[in-house]
Amino acid sequence: MIETNAKPEQGFSPAEEKSAGMVDARMELLQRVLASRTFAKSVRLTRFLEFICLRTIEGNARELNEHEIGIHVFARSPAYSASDDSIVRTQARLLRQRLEEYFEHECPTCPMVISIPKGGYVPVFEPRNTASKAPVYAPLAPIQTDESPAIPSVRENADKDSPDARSRRKWIYGTLAAGVTGVLLGLFLSYLWSTSRNQGPSDALWSSIFSRGRSVVIVPSDDALVLFEELTQASVPLDEYLSGSYLGKSNLPHAGTAPLTSDWFAAHQYTSSADLNLAMRLGQLPEAVNGKVATRNARVLRIDDLKSNNVILIGGIASNPWVGLFSDRLNFDVNYDWKSSEGYVLNKHPLPGEATIYRDAISADGTRRSYGVLVFLPGIEDNGQALLFEGTGMAGTEAAADFPFNPTSFRSFAQQIGATSGKMPYFEALIETTSIAGNAPEARLIAYRLIKP
Question: What angle do CA 259, 262, 267 make, to 5 degrees?
Answer without folding.
Answer: 70
